[in-house]
Design a protein that fits this description.
Blueprint lengths: L5 H15 L14 E6 L5 E6 L6 H25 L9 H20 L6 H10 L5 E5 L4 E9 L3 E6 L2 E6 L3 E6 L7 E11 L3 E10 L6 E10 L5 E8 L3 E4 L5 E5 L5 E9 L8 E9 L3
Antiparallel strand pairs: 1-2, 3-4, 3-7, 4-5, 5-6, 8-9, 9-14, 10-11, 10-15, 12-13
Length: about 290
């Protein structure tokens, strides 16, 4: 080293020593704050690396470290909520859709009627089969019902209690019972006439039943090609004159084995063409 540089080196050494003895009282300077580095690992845990300035008071350093750790914990929680650490098998939307589907299936099952209701079973039991035969047995019992099958050795009878198989050796005799009911039918196809404002239908009906039919009425319906009913009307038949117990007098009754004429006029307009015509008979049983 050159001897001429010794004085300069000594001067610099003195300045450095004097600066090292300067008052190091704590000041709010960001350069004196502890250097803290954080790193979030793959398992969402935080690794904290702290570099502490030895010249900073211990209380301030601890306070700043606690504040930084609080910030780190908060950030870690936010990141954990944003990034799921497991994979859901089904999303919430899928579960809600499944619940909605099950609710609709439940409502459908509740609203769907059973194949045979108890009301229908009770009605069938009350109505029962038509009684057409009275079977007297040798033990003096009487069975009423309808003979469905007649075999060589036995018969199958439908009764209000169910089907019974009766051996013919046990039968004394069988009597046929006639049901008292009106049964009114059309005689032939009748006549049809078309006018400007109406259709006119005429014909005859016959009561082939065993009881009088009261207030016998014939109904005609006119239909379009799309199965929509266009026009309809009805009229009573020209039947027998009857006076009922209530005092009502009418000539629309039809006794057994009697026929009567009818005339039905159905008003129309020409907005839609008539494709086909249907007819029916209705009556009552009135005393």
């Amino acid at each position: 080293m050159n001897k001429s540089l010794y004085p300069a080196f000594i001067i610099l050494l003195i300045i450095f020593i004097s600066c090292s003895k300067k008052d190091n009282s704590p000041k709010p300077n960001k350069k004196d704050a502890p250097k803290i580095e954080t790193k979030i690992t793959e398992n969402d845990s935080a690794e904290v690396m702290i570099e502490i300035n030895e010249n900073k008071p211990e209380e301030n350093v601890i306070k700043e470290i606690n504040e930084e750790l609080t910030t780190i914990n908060t950030d870690s929680l936010i990141q954990t909520n944003d990034t799921q650490f497991y994979k859901l098998e089904k999303s919430i939307e899928d579960i809600l859709l499944k619940i909605s589907f099950l609710e609709k299936q439940l409502l459908l099952n509740e609203n769907s009627a059973p194949s045979t209701s108890f009301t229908e079973k009770l009605k069938n039991l009350i109505d029962g089969p038509p009684i057409k035969h009275q079977i007297s047995l040798k033990n003096e019992s009487i069975i009423e019902g309808f003979i469905e099958k007649d075999n060589e050795t036995n018969i199958l009878v439908m009764t209000s209690l169910g089907r019974l198989t009766i051996n013919k050796n046990e039968i004394e005799y069988i009597e046929e019972i006639t049901t008292l009911e009106p049964d009114i039918i059309f005689i032939g196809h009748g006549l049809e006439k078309e006018f400007d404002t109406y259709y006119e239908f005429t014909g005859k009906v016959l009561n082939q039943g065993t009881l009088r039919g009261d207030f016998v009425r014939v109904i005609y319906k006119l239909w379009a090609d799309d199965t929509n009913m266009l026009f309809s009307d009805s009229a009573f038949v020209e039947g027998d004159q009857i006076k009922y117990q209530s005092g009502i007098v009418t000539d629309t009754a039809l006794n057994p084995n009697k026929s009567a004429r009818y005339t039905v006029k159905v008003p129309i307009n020409h907005t839609a063409p008539v494709t086909y015509v249907t007819r029916e008979i209705r009556w009552m049983k009135y005393n």
